[in-house]
What we know:
The complex is a heterodimer of chains A (about 70) and B (about 625).
Chain A: E1 2-7, E2 18-21, H1 28-34, E3 43-47, E4 50-52, E5 63-68
Parallel strand pairs in A: 1-5
Antiparallel strand pairs in A: 1-2, 3-4, 3-5
Chain B: E1 7-12, E2 17-22, H1 25-31, H2 34-45, E3 59-63, E4 77-82, E5 89-94, H3 98-105, E6 109-113, E7 120-125, E8 128-133, H4 142-153, E9 158-161, H5 164-167, E10 175-177, E11 181-183, H6 188-194, E12 197-203, H7 214-229, H8 232-240, H9 246-252, H10 266-272, H11 274-280, E13 282-286, E14 296-301, E15 308-312, H12 316-321, H13 331-344, H14 348-364, H15 369-372, H16 382-395, H17 398-404, H18 408-415, E16 425-426, E17 429-430, H19 441-449, H20 461-466, H21 488-505, H22 509-512, H23 517-528, H24 534-554, H25 566-569, H26 584-594, H27 606-611, H28 615-624
Parallel strand pairs in B: 1-6, 7-12
Antiparallel strand pairs in B: 1-2, 3-4, 3-6, 4-5, 7-8, 9-10, 9-12, 10-11, 13-14, 14-15, 16-17
Helix pairs in contact in B: 1-2, 2-21, 2-24, 7-23, 9-10, 13-16, 14-18, 16-17, 19-21, 21-24, 21-26
Amino acid sequence: MKVYLVPVGIMKKYMKERGLDIEADLTAGTLIKRLNLSDKLKIICFLNGKRIDPDYRFTEGDIVKIVSTFAGG
Amino acid sequence: MNGNTGKIINVDLGKGSIETELLPEEYYTKYIGGSGLAAKLFWERGSFSADPLSPEAMLIFMNGPFAGLKISGASRNSVAGRSPLTGNWGDSSCGGYFAPELRYAGYDGIIIKGKAEKPSMLLIEDEKINILPAPEHWGKGTEEVNRAIKEKYGKNYRTLIIGPAGENLVKYSIILNEGHHAFGRAGFGAVMGSKNLKAIVVKASGKIMKLADPEKYEELRAELNPKIKDALASDVMRENGTAANLEGGVVSGDVPIRNYTSNYWEEMGQELNGGVLTEKYLTKRRACAYCSIACKRVVEVKEGPFAIPEGPGPEYETIAALGSLIGSMDLAAACKAGRICNDLGIDTISAGGTIAWAMEAFERGDITEKDTGGIKLLWGDMETVIDKILPGIAARKGEFGMLLAEGSLSAAVKTGKDTISYTVQCKGLEVPMHDPRGGGHGLALAYAVSPRGACHVASPMLFLEMGACFYPEIGFEYELEPKTDENKAETAVIAVALGAIENSACFCQFADREIAIPEWVGLFNTVAGYNWNAQDMMNAGTRVFYLKRLINYLFGRTAKDDAMTPRMLEPARDGDPEGVVINFEGMKNKFYELMDMDPLKGIPSLKKLEEYGMGVEAKRVRRET
């Protein structure tokens, strides 16, 4: 199964936009761990404009926005 | 005294008098410094009946105990007093280079009263302090005056300057350091203007500081500076500024759009992001004194309708307030609008909030061209904002300039027609550029209970909700889910104390988010010799928060003023937070209970005050109310 990862904002510094072949039952939380990014980034994922939980299971062709909670003041 | 000098300057501009004074050490150990110590001094010496723009009003500048130390983020300064914008307690923090110079000159702070007969400036050169005539600077922008002062005295003379807006008593006027760093919020530029004080300039001849335990301090400094410098957040802001993740904030629904009517605008996020600023307009990165983060931007827009020469660039708040909030996704326009606000001496957050309110009022037909002097107010029309509205506010030009110069709450009250329902402010202070519906619900509580009004830096709630820092030593070791009310009141109890510590120590939140509780305590003890443990430090923070609440109470503010305006409590209309409603009253009630605050008066119980060593303050409240 293929999903597409789209880094947003500061995440562009840490990963490239790309398609990824994954197992059918992979959760969003596991996928994020596999990306091996710093815990400090506090990553959350969005699909079709809505946040998805870490236990969300992807479907074919999902376009997932990868966002850090980092905010400036 | 260690760390602190213990000495302040008292200036009466009406009498032309200047005196120095030594403060009791207990003031520092109980109220730390910065805005906390300023609150203590206002409580004792300030007038609760004086108009903030009258000669009797007190204007207080105060350092924290770490000013002048070579630690990232440690050298900010607070300005405080009664805010002309809100009528409440007000304080505002500024980085830059004023705080260390004042410390090296031998002072922790300055209290200014009275009104000079003619435009003046205050010049501090170690023990030599003079009030000088400054008619040549009156009416001029901050950029020109900053340049002129440095040409006359030298580039290392550190400046605080107001622009024409401050002179014209625009209620959200700023005070600018070195032409780049702002005391942005609550309108203290107007207080300086009301005193005919155009500038304060300081130069020290040396850099001597006395520390309680220099050796242990050096050990701590050697640990802290690399920790702050190498932190991921510091790296991100150094590269792309404080707007580095604006685009991510848009996806989350944190970034306000068109007066908080929308939480999603994808193209805007892509256009206004900090990385775009770096690519298109950045010429240099700049830092406040001794700071390795260097989040400040220097920009140049070479061509187009919003071309500006190389100079100070915008940070996140300005980009959003003079961008998405007023319906624009033009980054060059935000750069130019921010530059103009600096030069005129206007707070970009309150300016953006007030203009956004006016644009919505125009769209709804609640104000018309008859009210605006023929100006069409259209979302995203940055040429009109830059050429007409901002200069009109600073000059109080016509009825419309007068209306907007008072801020969104006053403007809505004067306009009527229920336009107050779509102001976005707490206690009269326009809300900063983080929408709690998309960013984190706890931020709504933090905005509402902040003594100065809607403020994202009164406490670190924003960072705590995003999981940027944890403090297991004081019980904050749990992950928060931003878009719920769960554990937010409990977190706010810790956050208001930490925020009071930060703002009293005059530390930058971008740097101190990397500092653990034992390191905070270590700094206070090795620098100032307070001999604290973690609980002592947290108690001092809570004490400062309580004192500011008492000050507001004597100004007539009660629990009902800890409110969010209706717009913030409406369900979000789109984006990730669409349909979400904040359980504001639930969080507030719980917070009041945990803080032992009276649900009507909005102040702590007398028993609680006594517990915090504030028996004298408790007696005064009992006596005067």
